[in-house]
Write a structure and sequence with these properties.
VC0802-like; alpha/beta; Rossmann fold; 31% helix; 15 strands; elongated; 10 helices; 393 residues
C-alpha cells in the first residue's frame, strides 16, 4: 500500500529532488517550497533515505486536524494514538514550525504536544516515555499553517546531509546536500573532468565521486529514524542496502581538487579516505589564480569561493576579478559554475552568466552562476547573453 511522504530540501533544489524521486520510481510527485511530496510503499521510504542526495529528511504525515487556541493544541495532539508510533521505553522529541497568526511560539506548541503525549501514556500505563531533544528514538514534527495542524514522523532521524563520511571540517563547509545539488544542477555528465579549485574540506569533490560511482549517500550510516519504529522491517531494509551496494559502478572520470591551504587538503584527504574514495580525486596545493595550467583540456568547474566576511571589501573585489581573469586566460573550453553570497563581488568576475540560479548556503542568499568559456568568440555572436535569474518572469 502506498503512503504519502514529504521530502524536505533546500531552496532552489526542489526540481533536482523531484527528478531524483522520479528516477527512484516514486509516484504522485508534487513540488512545494523547500519540499517535494511523493507516494510509495515502505521500500520506497527506505530507498529515499538511502539514495536521495538533495533531501534533508523524509517526513511521514500521520494526522491532520485543526486548532485555534492553546486548549485546541492539546486536544489535537490527543487525537493521535501515539502507542502506534512510540513505545514506553523509547525517547521522543517534538519539533515545530509555524506559519500562523494564531500561534507564534514554537517551543510552547512543542510543550503542549509533549504534555498530551505524556498524559496519554500515563493514563494507559501509569508512566510515560522520556524526552531526548538531541538523540530521540522517535522524532515528531508539528507543522501549523493558519489553524491547520499536521503531525509527521521524521523517518530520517539526523538530517540526511550528515552522510557519515565527513570526519574533518574546514572553515564554513558546504552542506553535503547543497554540494550534491550544485553538481546535479550543473548538468555534469560524469564523463568530462570536474574541478573544484577552492575545495576546502572537499565536499563537492566527495559528492562528485559518489555520483560518478553511483554510491548511495545513505550507505555510510545504519541509523535512521525509521529503524526505531515499531513497524521497522529489518530484512527489507537489509535487502535494500545490499541492492544499493551492488549498484556501485567503476568510474575513471577525472576529478581534480586544489586549495591554497594545506590544512584544507589534509582534511579533504581525510574525508575521501573515510568515504573510501581516496583514489577518485587528484589533489594539488596551489592558489587558483597562480596555477599555471588547467588540469585538463576542458571540463566542468564548480567553485565556492570566499564570500568576503573576513576579507576587506577592496580585497574581495580584487579576488573576484582574479577569478574572472584566470577563467578567461586559462580555461577556454570549460564551463564554470560559481556560488557566492556576495552578489556585488560576483559582478566583478567580469563574465556574462548564461544561468543565474538563486540558492541558499545556510541562511545566506546566494547566486549559482554559470559561465561558458569559449576559445575566441562563440559561433553566432560572441559570449552568451545574460539571462534573468531562474524563477523570475
Amino acid at each position: 500500500m502506498n503512503t504519502k511522504y514529504i521530502a524536505k530540501t533546500l531552496f532552489g533544489l526542489e526540481e533536482v529532488l523531484a527528478e531524483e524521486l522520479r528516477n527512484l520510481g516514486a509516484s504522485d510527485i508534487e513540488m512545494h517550497n523547500r519540499a517535494v511530496g511523493f507516494s510509495g510503499d515502505k521500500a520506497m521510504l527506505y530507498k529515499a533515505n538511502l539514495w536521495l542526495r538533495t533531501a534533508t529528511r523524509i517526513l511521514v504525515p500521520i494526522h491532520t486536524t485543526k486548532a485555534q487556541n492553546d486548549e485546541g493544541l492539546y486536544k489535537a495532539a490527543l487525537e493521535v494514538d501515539w502507542g502506534h508510533y512510540l513505545a514506553l521505553d523509547q525517547t521522543f522529541a517534538i519539533h515545530t514550525s509555524i506559519n500562523s497568526t494564531l500561534f507564534n511560539h514554537t517551543l510552547f506548541v512543542s510543550q503542549k504536544v509533549k504534555d498530551a503525549i505524556a498524559d496519554q501514556f500515563r493514563r494507559r500505563h501509569g508512566e510515560r516515555p522520556n524526552v531526548n531533544v538531541d538523540f530521540p528514538d522517535v522524532s515528531i514534527q508539528v507543522h501549523i499553517f493558519n489553524d491547520q495542524m499536521t503531525f509527521f514522523l521524521d523517518s530520517s532521524g539526523e538530517s540526511l546531509h550528515k552522510r557519515g563520511y565527513k570526519v574533518a571540517i574546514f572553515k564554513a563547509p558546504l552542506s553535503e546536500c547543497l554540494a550534491a545539488g550544485m553538481i546535479l544542477l550543473s548538468g555534469w555528465d560524469q564523463k568530462q573532468p570536474l574541478y573544484d579549485p577552492m575545495c576546502g574540506s572537499g565536499t563537492i569533490l566527495t559528492e562528485a565521486a559518489l555520483i560518478a560511482r553511483n554510491i548511495a549517500p545513505g550507505l555510510y550510516r545504519d541509523d535512521f529514524g525509521f529503524t526505531h519504529w515499531p513497524d521497522f522491517d529489518k530484512p527489507l531494509f537489509l535487502s535494500i542496502q545490499k541492492e544499493a551496494r551492488n549498484a556501485e559502478r567503476p568510474s575513471d572520470v577525472q576529478i581534480f581538487g586544489s586549495d591554497v591551504s594545506m590544512q584544507a587538503l589534509d582534511e579533504t584527504r581525510q574525508n575521501l579516505e573515510s568515504a573510501e574514495l581516496e583514489d577518485a580525486v587528484v589533489l594539488k596545493q596551489v592558489a587558483f589564480e597562480q596555477n599555471p595550467t588547467a588540469p585538463a583540456e576542458g571540463g566542468m568547474m564548480i567553485i565556492n569561493p570566499p564570500y568576503g566576511d573576513r576579507i576587506e571589501k577592496d580585497d574581495i573585489i580584487a579576488f573576484y576579478k582574479s577569478i574572472g581573469d584566470t577563467l578567461k586566460r586559462q580555461y577556454s573550453g570549460w564551463q564554470a559554475w560559481v556560488l557566492s553570497a556576495n552578489l556585488d563581488a560576483l559582478k566583478f568576475v567580469g563574465l556574462r552568466p548564461s544561468r543565474k540560479i538563486p540558492l541558499f548556503n545556510g541562511p545566506l542568499e546566494c547566486r549559482f552562476n554559470r559561465f561558458d568559456l569559449y576559445a575566441g568568440s562563440k559561433k553566432g555572436g560572441g559570449e552568451p547573453r545574460e539571462v534573468k535569474e531562474e524563477g523570475q518572469a
